[in-house]
Amino acid sequence: MPDYLNPVELWLTVAALLTGATLAGLMIWLERRPRQSFEPRLVPTTPLLFAGAVVAIFALVHLINLMGIHTGR
């Protein structure tokens, strides 16, 4: 691990990546289950799916930046 890498920041970013991926995966699983009735779901799966995916993508980019690869301008 490089000297400039803060372990707390690394673990928080990994936790955000896992949380976002888990949220997105859970919402995909809920969307693909067969419907038993035509009543609307209590949990809005599509916005939560996109939120989890955005969090996971941002955390992945942040991890790449922490490792020293410059992804921006």
Characteristic terms for this protein:
73 residues; mainly alpha; 2 helices; 0% strand
Structural commentary:
The longest helix is centred in the first third of the chain and has 26 residues, at 7-32. The protein has 73 residues and is mainly alpha-helical. It contains two helices and no strands. Helix content is 66%, strand content 0%.
Largest sheet entry:
none
- What structural category arises from helix and sheet content? mainly alpha
Alpha-carbon distance between the two ends: 25 Å
Overall, the morphology is: elongated
Condensed summary:
By secondary structure, the chain is mainly α. The chain has helices spanning 7-32, 45-66.
What does the secondary structure layout of this molecule look like, with pairings?
Elements: H1 7-32, H2 45-66
Helix pairs in contact: 1-2
